[in-house]
Structures are given as C-alpha cells and as structure tokens.
Write a structure and sequence with these properties.
It contains 13 helices and 12 strands. By secondary structure, the chain is an alpha/beta fold. The chain starts with a helix and ends with a strand.
Amino acid sequence: MAFSKLDLQEGLRTLSVMQWIPLYIILGLIPILLIPFYLMFTKYWVLSLLPLVWLAYDWDTHIQGGRRSAWVRNWTLWKYFQSYFPVKLVKTHDLSPDHNYVIVNHPHGIFSHGVFINFATEATGVSKIFPDITPSLGTLEGLFWIPIVREYVMAVGVRPVCESSLRYFLTCKNSGNAVIVVVGGAAEALLCRPGASTIVLKNRKGFVKLALKTGAYLVPSYSFGENEVFNQETFPEGTWKRFFQKNFQDTFKKILGLNFCTFHGRGLTRGSWGFLPFNRPITTVVGEPIPVPRIKDPDKKTVDKYHTLYISALQKLFDEHKVHYGIPETQELTIM
C-alpha cells in the first residue's frame, strides 16, 4: 500500500522526536567509547587523545558564550518536532531589548519538550515573537563535559545552568539577553503526572539571587500541557523501591541531578505503549516582566521579597490562562 503525503509527514514528525534523546547518547558514545577503544589498539592510538585535548583547550567556551548557530536553530527537523505535539509560544507582554531577563519556566515535565522547542530552536519563531532578544536555555553542566555533544547543544544556544555561565551571559553581553531556567529540576520531574499542576519553588531562590546580582528582570512562564505527554509513576513503595534507591537512584541524583521514575508514552503504532510522548498540545505562556534592581550582594530579606513577588506573578499567570489551555477552573497551582 502506497504511503500518502499525510503518512510521510506523520512519519517525519515521529522520527524528529525519536532522535532527540538517543542522539545525545550516540554522540556521547563516539568520543567516549568508540574512538578510544577502536584506535587504542592501532598505530593511530594517539588520535584517541584528540577529543580530550580539544575538550581541555576549549573548556571555557561553553561558559563564555558558546558557539551559537542560527543555521542549526532553524533546522527543518525542529519544525517537525514542534508540529508533533504541537508546541506553541504565547507572549502576554513585550520584552524590551533595553534589559536582560531571567525567564523561569514550569513545570519541568519528563524531558521539558516545550521549553526546549520554544527557546533552543526557532520552530515557534521566538526571535519574531520577542524581537531583539537572544534566548539561552540552561541545562545540566554534565552535557558540556562530553566532546561532540557539547558542540551540538552549544549550537542551539544552550548553556550550563551554573551561576558563572548565566552571570556571564547577563552581564558581559550588553542588553537584550534572556536566560531560561527550569528551576524545579529533578525533584519536580517526579511530580509531573497528567492532570497535576504541582511545582517545586518554595525553597528555590537561586534564580532570584541571579536576577538581583545582574539586574535582570524576572519573567514567569508556564508550559501548559507539559505534564500530559507522558504517563508517569515513581517506583512503588516496598522492596523494589528500596532496591532501586539503594543501587541506582541516589547515585544518579548525586552525579547527574536526575531521579529515577517509571514513565511511558505511546508506541510506534497508535494504541500501543512505548517511549514516544503522546501527541498533546504544549503551550508555553510567557508572563509580565518583574523589574529587579541590581544589587551586588542581596540580603535574605530582599531575596525573599522578590521571590514572593515572583510567586504572585506566576500564580496570576497560571490562573488567567489555565482554563484556556485545558486545566479545570477549580484546579489550583500547588507550590511545594
């Protein structure tokens, strides 16, 4: 039976999603395992050291701006990825290029598909929606320790979510820059069940300190639908939970900042289970900027003040848009 144009488009969308996480693993294996182990036993063994030499030579690049590529950010691949769900970016207020910004996104979800597509690619037209603003998404610093992988993530404008990198971007690159951080992290990923609107924020104040130290405006954002693309459960209570925590979970959390959980999406055929995300809309709504003064060493009272202002702004954003994007009017945003 011949494929229709619709079948082809659906196949390309599925492939674009399938490549995302496995690609990082494949790219990571090439310099870490395949090249060293293959070349080590040949007369070209010296070449196996080249990835490490380059990594040492180029070590500070990911901290000091990276190698952003407009060509990579505009790949057609990302447009197929975006249309798979689909993912959308919604602006409620303009962002003036006269300021810098810390855009904080919730919830984390399993893989943060919405924030990646909206800010690490041009699939939803972020540069047109927020003209003269340069966005840079923060992620785990460990990715930048892996040759080849680091080149790939730097090309889309992703940077490590460490203070030195974020401060450099917000203080050494003039104005019109925005770092995007998903502050809930691994702890929030364990709470991202469908139908849930629970975020980890009460004791997450590092982003407020960053904004105060750099004078960057705080901007709340919420990705409605992010929790709906996977069915997720943490390991059940009992023997199995204790086994995985003892042997895997605690180690992964310390080294990679990751927590183990069980999750599933759809399979390659409709109705089957697998690890593809469900085709559910994800809409990232960006709220009103909160002006923040620049204070070299902000005290706890000031940090708490702007943290409270941020929570109020996020709550307002959630309440104003939740019904429009599929959340029942009676459902509240739970902040832990």
